[in-house]
Amino acid sequence: MTSNFTINHQLEHRTIRKFKDQTLTADQLQTLYRVASQTSTSMFMQQASIMHITDDNLRAKIRQISGQPYVGANGDLFIFIVDLYRNQQIRHHNGFDDGRLHTTDIFFQGMEDTVLMLQNMAIAAESMGLGVTILGSINDHPAELVKVLQLPKLTFPVLGLQVGVPDQKPQLKPRLPLEMMSFENQYATQVNFEQLAKYDQIVTNYYDLRDTSKRIDSFTNQIDGQKLAKRSIDRDQIVQVLHDQELCLDFK
Ligand SMILES: Cc1cc2nc3c(=O)[nH]c(=O)nc-3n(C[C@H](O)[C@H](O)[C@H](O)COP(=O)(O)O)c2cc1C
Fold first, then answer.
1. Which residue's CA is the closest to the ligand 1 atom numbered 29?
2. CA 218 to CA 200: how far, in whole Å?
3. Probe ligand 1: pick from 71, 135, 169, max atoms within 8 Å of CB?
4. Ligand 1: centre distance to CA 67 (Å)
5. Of all atoms in ligand 1, which is nearest to the CA of residue 70?
6. What pLDDT does residue 252 have?
7. pLDDT mean over 170-174
8. Model confidence pLDDT, tens digit, residues 115-148
9. Which of 74, 84, 96, 171 could be a cystine partner for 91, CB 3.0 to 4.6 Å?
10. Rounded distance, CA 101 to CA 178, Å?
11. Which residue's CA is the nearest one to ligand 1's atom 28?
12. Confidence (pTM)
């Protein structure tokens, strides 16, 4: 297998949830922004933006929404936003209407830009010896988040990213065997449950050995459990919030 600086870092990826009481230097911040801005962008429309949340009050509100104590605590908090507003303003400035900006298609492209930008920043941060947590939890109460961030229509906060100097070194979390998630030409509709059982054992060992919260668990347990259980939660507001933000409103 090929080994180089980039690949070694990618293969060492683990989510960091405990950071030292330090913030990014101006140079680190500038570097991360530059990397993020150079990310590929669908149709060269640059429909993503980043908010650096430095205000303690705002960080506390986002932490409360996410329900996770490390959100907006030590380190730096970024919110990655699908941003179709900027292009709307450019079009309006030049006397054009909103065109296709409200469609699901254009939103989807904005999502693609936003997620890629986040991942690029995350990889750069890790290559600089920093640690990251990607934060889907910022959308546990999506209507509240849009309000707290005072976002204009045609924007939507997709993910947060907590970046900082690691204060822990968790073990690598084992992933599904490659045969279960990579296919050649033909999607394999038969899940290999024998292979899955072996993987479950590996995950159970991982949970047993990991030094932070020890627990008995497997991958299958998690898929069978609460994460996908039929229940109504505030995250189900996402479609409504998208519509309130005038996004994903297709032409009839
Ligand atoms: C889209 C996305 C959202 C995530 N949201 C959270 C989150 O809200 N809180 C958290 O602690 N980790 C979050 N994670 C991190 C995952 O829990 C983590 O990547 C996964 O358990 C695998 O562990 P690893 O990254 O250490 O390999 C998120 C990851 C992704 C890709």
1. 134
2. 5
3. 135
4. 14
5. 11
6. 79
7. 95
8. 999 999 999 999 999 999 999 999 999 999 999 9
9. 96
10. 38
11. 134
12. 0.97
The candidate with the shortest Cα–Cα distance to 75, out of 170, 160, 172, 169, is 160
CB-based pocket (< 6 A), ligand 1: 13-15, 17, 68, 133-137, 159, 173
- CA 153 to centroid of ligand 1, rounded, Å: 28
pLDDT at residue 178, as a whole number: 98
Q: For residue 213, name the pLDDT band (cuts at 50, 70, 90).
A: low
What integer is the mean pLDDT of 166-187?
Answer: 97
Kindly indicate the confidence band of residue 208, based on its pLDDT and cuts at 50, 70 and 90.
Answer: confident
What mean pLDDT do residues 7-29 have?
98
Which atom number of ligand 1 is nearest to the Cα of residue 175? 27
Closest to 127 measured CA to CA, from 163, 77, 93: 163
**CB contact at 8 A, 21 and 75:** no
Report how far ligand 1's centroid is from the alpha carbon of 12 (Å).
Answer: 15
Region of 190 please: left (phi>0), alpha (psi -120 to 50) or beta: beta
